[in-house]
Design brief:
heterodimer, A: alpha/beta, two-stranded parallel sheet, 17% strand, B: 356 residues, alpha/beta, seven-stranded parallel β-sheet, three-stranded mixed β-sheet, 13 helices
Chain lengths: 319, 356
């Protein structure tokens, strides 16, 4: 039985990882400062998680949390591109300083592997598609820079200290428990919430911008594979995505179909720091991690919408 | 060998619960959390640790000597960190009674029981036992714009029933050191702010009123000056004093953030303008509303916190800018918590307090 530490365990991705790790029969310890994470996300697994309410900026707490741990799944961050544009200092502090704290603690505790929630925003707005990991990174927003800098720290801690790390560049993850209520919510969570509540969603820009939306289960699989992969994967970066791109106009149409929303879609001004098109190449991930996306976009949307309609219904009424 | 534990009084309040969460987050030892659950105590603050094996919550009054004695006997804490107090100045002006009862008599009872407990400890436990008394810079009184900041040897000159009751409790704590040898530590901090602060206090009050388009009340001319200390920094400092402070000493804890109230309000409004552009009234600063000044309102507090830096190597991690943003974002993300605390008695209180 292995022991996993999940940072950001009360968040959207962290809580889903916790469920998966428990389901495979392993132990979960989690740390979350509950700034954006919610204890409710851990509801039925609460008693099975060794939960600490603490900030990754609290090095003493992170060190304690790493004691006896085999794998660290580092999700804790201040998410959101637009938020980092408003507050680059806060974003840097949480996303970079926080990550270095996790690495130092993991190194000292002789953790077997650290898997990092990196971001497709590392690719920026270069026109070439699909994005391959050996392309020159081009981060635009402070968030993208922080996530990329953290990847370099991941590699550095492998090169300098032998701590095995794997960075996973997530491509627009969506799914149950994604917070739809904040101004910075992921577009799918926001649109689903709005449409299920009968409100018109607003597409920022002309709607032709596209994303490689990835259902959460695929990201979970990638994390678990990253822990088990051979040492050849250590110190490296891998895309985690569906490998298919869809624009927001088409996305909105699919959502209308699935939610039954009959209203109109509104359009607003483009957002600073946003990337136009995103699509992942998954050959490297398949080669080193054995990763293959198992849930397609529309299936994932269906499952997500069903979740919001049932367990997530309380989130729908929040303005 | 049972796991070590500390006794925290007032650990369901704003500062106390932050301390308990931080302590347990660092897995330092068990916590026996003793709180009366007045209007300021909120188990919701402790949601993440209520089922933690290392956290034991006991509801009760520090003035209940039998109960305190039995807690000390059963749990044999290696330290007592005493937060329990009535703390809102405005309430002390309307009703000083509770302040003397809790802050003076309550601390006295706790000291008496601690003394009995301490006396019975074996020598090795006696050597490491600490009683840490959490107090305030308001005991030093008010400063004019050109006065030097309060340091640990500044004469006590409290002006409100609240600060007088805290000053009295500080004196008792000191006396128990000099007379009975109880190993005490006292900390005097500046104005705290941060997650879980009860919304009667300036910063959460501004945030909540601004978001809902209600007037933001500012006392007098808004130029009263306070030093602002992010609550997690304060708790970290208390841990440092507990671990490294010299018994009998007092330590000032400050944030290095002297600001006028009006500046605080404008800063919060500006952050809200960025994060909540769709609120009922924007820019949020339009809601600022000057109200009748608080009677005997201390003009300026400024804290010289160089002793803790020099002697124990502690300084705050947050700047005001980083701390206030985290605070605003926390309140924005914790609507449910806010709704739960603002129901009930709190509403009646607010009507009498902020008149035009």
């Amino acid at each position: 039985m292995a022991k996993y530490l999940i940072t950001g365990v009360a968040g959207f991705i962290g809580s889903s990882l916790a469920r998966a790790v428990l389901a495979q029969g392993d132990d979960v310890r989690g740390i979350d400062n509950l700034a954006t994470g919610k204890l409710e996300n851990l509801d039925e697994i609460r008693s099975r998680v060794d939960f600490r309410q603490a900030d990754i900026l609290d090095l003493a707490a992170v060190k304690e949390a790493c004691a006896g741990v085999d794998f660290v799944l580092h999700q804790a961050a201040i998410p959101s591109v637009p938020k980092s544009v408003i507050d680059p200092l806060g974003s840097n502090q949480a996303n970079v300083d926080g990550t270095v704290n996790v690495l130092v603690a993991a190194r000292d505790a002789k953790v077997k592997r650290v898997v990092y929630a990196a971001s497709s925003s590392a690719y920026g707005d270069t026109p070439t598609l699909p994005k391959r990991e050996d392309m020159i990174p081009n981060p635009i927003s402070p968030y993208a820079v922080a996530k990329l800098a953290s990847e370099y720290y991941m590699t550095s801690f492998y090169r300098c200290y032998g701590l095995e790390t794997v960075s996973l560049r997530y491509f627009n993850i969506f799914g149950p428990r994604q917070d739809p209520t904040s101004q910075y919510s992921g577009v799918l969570a926001k649109f689903i919430r709005q449409m299920l509540s009968g409100e018109s969603p607003t597409i920022l820009g002309d709607g032709k911008q596209s994303r490689d939306f990835t259902f959460i289960e695929n990201a979970i699989n990638a994390n678990l594979l990253a822990c088990k992969a051979s040492s050849e994967a250590a110190g490296k970066v891998f895309n985690v995505a569906t490998g298919r791109r869809i624009d927001l106009n088409e996305t909105a149409e699919i959502l209308k179909k699935l939610t039954g929303f009959k209203g109109e879609i509104k359009y607003g001004p483009e957002r600073a720091g946003d990337v136009k098109h995103s699509l992942a190449d998954l050959s490297r991930s398949e080669k080193y991690l054995g990763y293959k996306p198992t849930v397609a976009f529309e299936d994932g949307l269906q499952r997500t919408i069903e979740w919001y309609q049932t367990q997530g219904a309380a989130l729908l009424s929040h303005a | 060998m049972p796991k070590e534990s500390i006794l925290v009084t007032g650990g369901a309040g704003f500062i106390g619960s932050n301390f308990v969460l931080q302590w347990l987050g660092r897995a330092k030892s068990q916590v026996v959390n003793f709180d009366k659950l007045t209007y300021a105590g909120n188990l919701g603050n402790l949601a993440s640790v209520l089922s933690n094996r290392d956290h034991k919550f006991i509801q009760g009054d520090i003035g209940d000597r039998k109960l305190v004695a039995s807690i000390l006997k059963e749990h044999r804490p290696s330290a007592i960190v005493h937060f329990a107090a009535e703390s809102h100045v405005d309430r002390s002006i309307h009703g000083p009674d509770d302040f003397v009862k809790t802050n003076v008599n309550g601390t006295f009872s706790l000291l008496e029981e601690s003394r009995s407990y301490f006396t019975e400890l074996p020598p090795d436990e006696k050597a490491t036992f600490r009683f840490l008394h959490v107090s305030t810079d308001e005991v030093y009184g008010s400063l004019s714009p050109s006065d030097p900041a309060f340091c640990e040897t500044t004469a006590y000159a409290p002006n409100s029933p609240y600060s007088a009751s805290k000053a009295a409790s500080d004196h008792l704590v000191r006396a128990y050191f000099h007379t009975y040898g109880l190993p005490v530590l006292t900390t005097n901090c500046s104005n705290n702010y941060g997650p879980y602060q009860f919304p009667e206090k300036l910063i959460p009050l501004v945030i909540l009123n601004a978001r809902t388009g209600k007037p933001i009340p500012v006392y007098g001319d808004g130029k009263n000056v306070r030093d602002w200390l992010y609550v997690e920094d304060h708790c970290d400092a208390i841990q440092t004093v507990l671990a490294k402070g010299r018994p009998g000493e007092t330590y000032n804890i400050g944030g290095k953030n002297e600001k006028q109230n009006l500046e605080i309000v404008h800063t919060i409004c500006a952050i809200l303008d960025e994060l909540q552009p769709n609120d009922p009234v924007v820019p949020h600063s339009k809601l600022i509303s000057f109200v009748t000044d608080r009677p005997g309102h201390d003009r300026r507090y400024a804290i010289d916190a160089r002793k803790i830096e020099r002697e124990l190597g502690w300084k705050p991690r947050e700047t005001f800018e980083s701390g206030i943003r985290k605070t605003v974002e926390w309140y924005l993300a914790h609507d449910e918590w806010t709704r739960e605390v603002t129901s009930g008695a709190y509403r009646q209180w607010m009507a009498t307090q902020y008149s035009q």
